[in-house]
Amino acid sequence: MAEVLVLVDHAGGTVRKTTTELLTLARRLGEPSAVFIGDGYEEAKATLAAYGAQKIYRSESADLVDYLVVPQAELLARLVGQASPAAVLITSSAENREVAARLAVKTNSGLITDAVDVQSGDGSGVTTTQTVFAGAYTVTATVTAGTPIVTVKPNSATPEQAETQPVEEVVEFTASDAAKTVRITATAPREKTGRPELTEAAIVVSGGRGTAGDFSKVEDFADALGAAVGASRAAVDAGWYPHSSQVGQTGKQVSPQLYVACGISGAIQHRAGMQTSKTIVAVNKDEEAPIFELVDFGVVGDLFAVLPQATAAVEAKKG
Amino acid sequence: MNIVVCVKYVPDAQADRTFVESDKTTDRVGVDGLLSELDEYAIEEALLVTEAGEGEVTVLTAGPEQAADALKKALQMGADKAVHILDDQIHGSDAFGTSLVLAKAIEKLDPKPDLVLTGMSSTDGVMGVVPTLLAERLGLPAVTYASELTVGDVTVTVRRDNDAASQTIEASLPALVSVTDQINTPRYPSFKGIMAAKKKPVDTWSLADLGIDPGEVGLDAAWTKVESYAARPPREKGQVVTDEGDGGEKLAAFLAERKFV
Asked: Above 80 in pLDDT, residue A319?
């Protein structure tokens, strides 16, 4: 059976849920081979084995960490040449889509981004599903050249365990000179909130203009639900929350099990970022707010009254 | 500092975007279109950079006849000239085909640009890969998702805000930079700008003008294929209650019923 390369998403060796989803999807297409870059391999190995990686390629080359995009694409291109995989699966993110694009050009392969499902297609191909035009349409597509390169959105599959004993291969790698033209000269890490990552979270609670800059009630409710916190573009533009939390057309597109919009009117800019969520709830003072057209449940009211009461009620049910 | 800004004419997201049944491509003619919102930030940044020094801003697009509207808006904002790559054989190109066409056009520009600016992605395909593909084809360093840009004599420095960290990134000129909607506030065209735009040069180029073999672009040359498309059923409006002192409790009850608590 052919290999399927899966680029591992991790933070210092802690493998993210997205990678376990990709390994699960990879098993539909062939034998998963994880590609691990950077530090923390010993910690990651156990997770990769638990979720079915038959092989693990690993590289600790500093070039892969110090430079953006191109070295990772060069490494993956080399592995594609070496292993002739059935497909390459990469978690969708801004940087990863660029890696995937460069990889596709280097291997003369077609690229599909933001897939929400990947299935084995006719013959040896793969068929992907995407939701496009702000969730208005579902599209199925195939790759017609080279090795299918697919970036997959978080929450696209339920991870399934499958214990394996992976074969390990260490890859010595030096990036080309052309790959080293963009230098990271400084990094300022963000404070960790302890909350789940926005695009991966099962529940997202977002705040908008209606918070008037005070996200405390939104945050308390999110914490009661174990949710990530998102923000509308208005809130981000006003400086109330960072851009990395922005949900919308020019921010992140999320598709969690539950999305709670607080003080958000629901203009198309925002809807484009969340309208494929499984269950949608909204709290807004304005009963005419467009967001209410989308909801499974809505409360017309002041979030400063409704959310604290809801938080207390949720805590009571948990306790 | 000569700058070229690549822009895209896209179906209006407020309109009912759809596909052309005959070939499953995005309908760019039957749906109202406009300059992609994210491209406005790139145009604005180009204007800010050249206003601080010297140089020209050329705006470039590949698209059907109507795409001239996108160029017009850019000229009204203050771009100096425009190039429209217009050729039916480009229809249905994937990102690789699009990047080839744009790259050949940029190579043909005289004087050569020192900086290529783009938005961070289009608002229709939303792949966000054309900037990096363009840089690969032009042999330029690509610095993407810039939320702040400083242009020096020989380098560009960018602030990029990732989820985990904020990075400072540097590359030598000439370079390609894609910008986010955090980088500036695009200006509205002034009356003076609108009038001045009427006299600005717009060149129209075909594939033949660019020396591109039609077999390398277009629908048949694409490396991916849309197999099917289907409209998702619109969401049905669920229950909406008015808070009468118990709104929060009702919300919690709903969540419990749906097993979120």
From this structure: no
Round the CA-based radius of gyration of chain B to a whole number and report it.
21
Spatial separation of the C-alpha atoms in residues B119 and B39, rounded to whole Å = 5
CA dihedral sign of residues B144, B150, B156, B162: negative
The Cα of A39 is separated from the nearest Cα of chain B by a number of Å equal to 16
Is pLDDT of A124 > 70?
no
**Rounded distance, CA A243 to CA A94, Å?**
14
**How many beta-carbon pairs below 8 A join chains A and B?**
251
> Given CB atoms, is B209 within the 8 Å cutoff of chain A?
no
Q: Which of B85, B124, B72 is nearest to B217 (CA)?
A: B85
Find the closest chain A residue to B119 by CA distance.
A250
B112 DSSP 8-state letter: P
Q: Which residues of A touch B150 (CB under 8 A)?
A: none
Choose among A258, A155, A152, A133: nearest CA to A200: A155
CB within 8 Å of A261: residues ≥ 6 apart = A206, A208, A232, A270, A274, A280, A281, A282, A283, A284, A291
Q: Which two tokens stand for residue A237?
A: 């533009």
Bridge-based pairing of strands B239-242 and B142-146 is unpaired
Q: Chain B contact for A141, CB < 8 A?
A: yes
Coil, strand or helix: which one is B43?
A: helix
Average pLDDT of the segment spanning B78-100: 96
Residue B219's closest CA among B92, B98, B99?
B92
- CB burial of residue B12 (10 Å; 0-12, 13-18, 19+): middle
**So what's the ipTM on this one?**
0.89
* Residue B198, min C-alpha distance to chain A (Å): 31
The answer to whether A11 contacts chain B (CB < 8 Å) is yes
Cα A70 from Cα A56, distance rounded (Å): 21
| Lowest-confidence pick of A8-12, A213-217, A296-300 | A8-12
Q: How far apart are alpha carbons A271 and A248 in whole angstroms? A: 6
Question: Please, what is the angle between helix B130-138 and helix B95-108, to 10°?
Answer: 50
Question: pTM for the full model?
Answer: 0.91
The model's pLDDT over A161-177, given as tens digits with 9 standing for 90+, comes to: 999 999 999 999 999 99
CB atoms under 10 Å from CB of A279, counted, come to 18
pLDDT at B223 over 90: yes
In chain B, residues 140-169 whose CB comes closer than 8 Å to chain A: 141-145, 147, 157, 161-169
pLDDT in the model for residue B165? 87
